[in-house]
Write a structure and sequence with these properties.
This protein is an alpha/beta fold and 419 residues long. 32% of the residues lie in helices and 27% in strands. A hairpin with a 6-residue loop joins strand 12 and strand 13. Helix 8 runs parallel beside helix 9, helix 10 packs parallel to helix 12 and helix 11 packs parallel to helix 12. Bound molecules: uridine-diphosphate-N-acetylglucosamine.
Length: 419
């Protein structure tokens, strides 16, 4: 298994371009199952998760090719299988996104239950209940979620509680081809949900209310192929900005959407970063001390759970005590113990991490446990004195394209070692 070797501390300096969003491209790929013909999606990041999802779609009978950032998905010959098997789903929870589209397009779907993940339970009950509200018969058989709608789906009404990105996307996709009108309440308004909705509308779906908590969907008989460009990855942008917070220095970020990263910028400024827009670029700088912060993750437009770990790496070096609460996933703190191996002082209790800032971190071997946790460890390693080894970087490859090369181009001393 590959690992990263990092020699720190090094401040960052230079330019970096933000890639297309992992969390946007996966639901778009699932949506191609609803469309007949060749869907073309551009600005696609070449990630392990994108490749995994392509494998899943091929398993279902979709012909797909990813090259030079363009993904072509051909569904003309129809879906061959309605089963997302355990061996693929266990590698990638986002496989659950095919449940709604397969059901709507084929009248049947079988998706292996995703189970928990490294930081605790991640239920899918809202996906199931939302599809049941569209008339599907839902059951569980031998570890699989089985959905059937022999006569087709019909419009319905459903309220998500709590707000869920995944369930909103899944039920929205199914409702696009259901007979009649669907009303979905307390929907997620994350940019990735809006992108999915807009792509569906571009393909002929009738969706109103995108970006608000209530969606009205008037089902249509068929959808044209998708044509869209993936939005920039707001979490990747936030990760590079957080890298400047942790390591100090100055970077210029190209290609990010200010309205998407706004909830992240507030926290980074509180930490002591200066961030300003210069034309199309976002310039971020930190030269003074890091200040402690109080952060709570919330659904968009709140601070994202996907940035909590990276901000913790910065808080570890702040001049005072920070409080970081994850209201979306209260157990998502596996990075805290690894950051402590680098000398951080963190106590986690009842969904809140109390981070007592230290003057410096020290390099050590650490283990990546999930995607964003690994990003936090890499950032901390860049700021730590001496050599840090980050093991199990396959987690980070799931969601960041060649992160070590891009950080090295900003001055970090980081390299990948094949292992
Ligand atoms: C969440 C994040 C998303 C992030 C992703 C990966 C939010 C609202 N969503 O999306 O931005 O990219 O993690 O880190 O911040 N829930 C249920 N039943 C369900 C589905 C969800 O109870 O069927 C709960 C979850 O336990 C969680 C909340 O709803 O507390 C939000 O989950 P959801 O948005 O679905 O999670 P992801 O789609 O994984």
């Amino acid at each position: 298994m590959d690992y990263f070797v990092i020699e720190g501390p090094t401040p960052l300096d230079g330019d970096v371009r933000v890639a297309g969003a992992k969390n946007a491209v996966l639901p778009l790929m699932a949506a191609a199952l609803l469309c007949r013909g060749e869907s073309v999606i551009t600005n696609v990041p070449d990630l392990r998760d994108t490749r995994f999802f392509l494998d899943l779609l091929r398993e279902l009978g979709v012909a797909g090719e990813l090259g030079a950032g363009t993904l072509r998905l051909e569904t003309a010959s129809g879906v061959r299988s309605v089963t997302a098997p355990y061996d693929i789903v266990r590698k990638m929870r986002a496989s659950i996104y095919v449940l709604g589209p397969l059901l709507a397009a084929c009248g049947e779907a079988r998706v292996s239950k995703p189970g928990g993940c490294a930081w605790g339970p991640r239920p899918v009950d809202l996906h199931v209940a939302g599809l049941a509200a569209l008339g599907a018969e839902m059951s569980e058989e031998h570890g699989y979620i089985v959905a059937r709608a022999p006569g087709g789906l019909r419009g319905g009404r459903y309220r998500f509680e709590p707000v869920s990105v995944g369930a909103t996307c899944n039920v929205l996709m199914a409702a696009a081809l259901a007979r009649g009108e669907t009303t979905l309440e307390n929907c997620a308004c994350e940019p990735e949900v809006v992108q999915l909705g807009e792509a569906l509308v571009g393909a002929g779906a009738r969706v109103e209310g995108l970006g608000t908590r209530t969606l009205h969907i008037q089902g249509v008989d068929e959808l044209q192929p998708l044509r869209c460009a993936v939005i920039p990855d707001r979490i990747e942008a936030g990760t590079f900005l957080a890298a400047v917070a942790v390591a100090g220095g100055r970077i210029r970020l190209a290609g990010c959407r200010l309205d998407h990263v706004a909830p992240i910028l507030g926290v980074l400024r509180d930490l002591g970063c200066e961030i300003r827009a210069e034309g199309d670029l976002l310039v971020a700088e930190r030269s003074g001390p890091l200040r402690p912060v109080k952060v709570e993750t919330e659904p968009f437009p709140g601070f994202p759970t996907d940035m909590q770990a990276q901000v913790m790496a910065a808080a570890a070096l702040a001049d005072g005590v920070s409080f970081i609460t994850d209201t979306i996933y209260p157990d998502r703190f596996t990075h805290a113990a690894e950051l402590e191996r680098l000398g951080a002082n963190i106590e986690v209790k009842n969904g809140t991490a109390t981070v007592i800032g230290v003057a410096a971190l020290q390099g050590a071997p650490v283990m990546a446990t999930d995607l964003r946790a690994s990003a936090a460890l890499v950032l901390a390693g860049i700021a730590a004195r001496g050599r840090t080894e980050v093991r199990r970087v396959y987690h980070i490859d799931r969601g960041y394209e060649r992160i070590e090369e891009r950080l090295a181009a900003l001055g970090a001393r980081i390299e990948r070692v094949a292992g």
